[in-house]
């Protein structure tokens, strides 16, 4: 047997996180994670569970009783929604305009569903007319859309119109809100969304591990009336209902520290006010967008579809996108990310989310990005970018 490995103290780099997630974690959330552990059925923890659910309803803008943090990353809440709502033989309509529409399709297929698509180019939203035509042609049981497409930087408008079209054909509506919850206007009940899932590590500025999910009575009725159990025991919402519902019966050991974390992150949302938080994200990200464009760079989506929490910036001709990303990490401890799928190599994805959505981070990003581009010979005007961003913030 080998000797014990000589591993030193954990010292990860102190990065400024402005990629597609995670975002910088608020200090109060980190402190919450260092508080004493209790059992997952301890009476004190059950009270914490109740508080998390109430705070999550506020953030989703819903009265849904069935609103919980799924034990896992955002992909777990995504799979919990799709894997429970799509039964073998069901049809799910999914979008083709981004990477995460493709993930919806993959999960629906694994759940035994038949996938059909509503088509739109990467970098553009779904058009209501195209959705109506696709739904009329296929009569899906479930319709999924991505509210804030992380791969393209596109915000989906016309959500109430899309949900009305789906409901007119008796389809359940599932919304991917991973990059919108807590940062971009989202009104689950008012907009007619039946089920919505998100991740905690983006606009909520919380480490991954307990991921928001909400379902209305119509969606839960479909879940609880299934003829065949979902293929995942761990994510079976009919079983999780016993733990997060009134009985609080054992199902699995919840990630207690992560529940502490999301409780504090959601408390920060409530203290700031959800609409004020939406306004802050739009204002700070707007300054970032204005500054980037004043430097001489271009955004990927049209202005009317711009997603404040995730800014997709076009890579200039002659510039190596990976080299810029590496330069920012090595010289500035600053993280941004490259494109995914059809946009790989064409864009940088710059997050402006949660605790990272602060004016000082915008200035830091503009200076660092400008210097990284100058090092590659790109013609950018950092001073103009800083001046435009400052003006946009009213400074």
From TrEMBL:
Keywords: Aminotransferase, Pyridoxal phosphate, Transferase. InterPro entries: Aminotrans_V_dom, PyrdxlP-dep_Trfase, PyrdxlP-dep_Trfase_major, PyrdxlP-dep_Trfase_small, SP_NH2Trfase/AEP_transaminase. Gene3D superfamilies: Aspartate Aminotransferase, domain 1 (3.90.1150.10), Type I PLP-dependent aspartate aminotransferase-like (Major domain) (3.40.640.10). It comes from Natronoglomus mannanivorans. It comes from the Archaea. GO terms for molecular function: alanine-glyoxylate transaminase activity; L-serine-pyruvate transaminase activity. GO terms for biological process: glycine biosynthetic process, by transamination of glyoxylate. The keyword Transferase applies. This is Alanine--glyoxylate aminotransferase family protein.
């Amino acid at each position: 047997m080998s000797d014990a490995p000589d591993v030193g103290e954990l010292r990860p780099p102190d990065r400024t996180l402005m990629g597609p997630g995670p975002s910088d974690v608020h200090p109060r959330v980190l402190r919450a994670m260092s508080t004493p552990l209790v059992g997952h059925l301890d009476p004190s923890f059950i009270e914490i569970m109740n508080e998390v659910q109430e705070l999550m309803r506020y953030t989703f803008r819903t009265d849904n009783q069935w609103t919980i943090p799924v034990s896992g990353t955002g992909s777990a809440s995504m799979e919990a929604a799709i894997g429970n709502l799509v039964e073998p033989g069901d049809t799910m309509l999914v979008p083709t305009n981004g990477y995460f529409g493709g993930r919806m399709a993959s999960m629906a297929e694994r759940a035994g569903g038949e996938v059909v698509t509503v088509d739109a180019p990467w970098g553009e939203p779904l058009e209501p007319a195209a959705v109506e035509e696709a739904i009329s042609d296929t009569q899906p049981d479930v319709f999924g859309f991505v509210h804030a497409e992380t791969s393209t930087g596109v915000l989906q408008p016309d959500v109430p119109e899309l949900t009305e079209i789906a409901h007119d054909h008796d389809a359940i509506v599932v919304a991917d809100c991973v990059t919108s919850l807590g940062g971009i206007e989202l009104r689950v009940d008012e907009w007619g969304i039946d089920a919505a899932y998100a991740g905690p590590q983006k606009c909520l500025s919380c480490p991954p591990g307990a991921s928001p999910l909400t379902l209305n009575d119509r969606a839960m009725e479909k879940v609880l009336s299934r003829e065949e159990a979902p293929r995942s025991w761990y994510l079976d919402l009919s079983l999780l209902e016993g733990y997060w519902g009134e009985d609080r019966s054992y199902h699995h050991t919840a990630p207690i520290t992560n529940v502490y974390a999301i409780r504090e992150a959601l408390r920060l949302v409530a203290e700031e006010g959800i609409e004020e938080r939406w306004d802050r994200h739009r204002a700070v990200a707007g300054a970032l967008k204005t500054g980037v464009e004043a430097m001489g760079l271009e955004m990927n989506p049209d202005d009317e579809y711009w997603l404040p929490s995730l800014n997709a910036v076009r890579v200039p001709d002659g510039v190596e996108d990976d080299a810029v990303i590496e330069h920012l990490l090595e010289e500035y401890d600053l993280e941004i990310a490259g494109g995914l799928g059809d946009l790989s190599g064409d864009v940088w994805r710059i997050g402006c989310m949660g605790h990272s959505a602060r004016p000082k981070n915008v200035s830091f990003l503009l200076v660092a990005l400008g210097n990284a581009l100058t090092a590659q010979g790109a013609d950018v005007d950092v001073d103009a970018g800083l001046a435009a961003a400052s003006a946009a913030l009213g400074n």
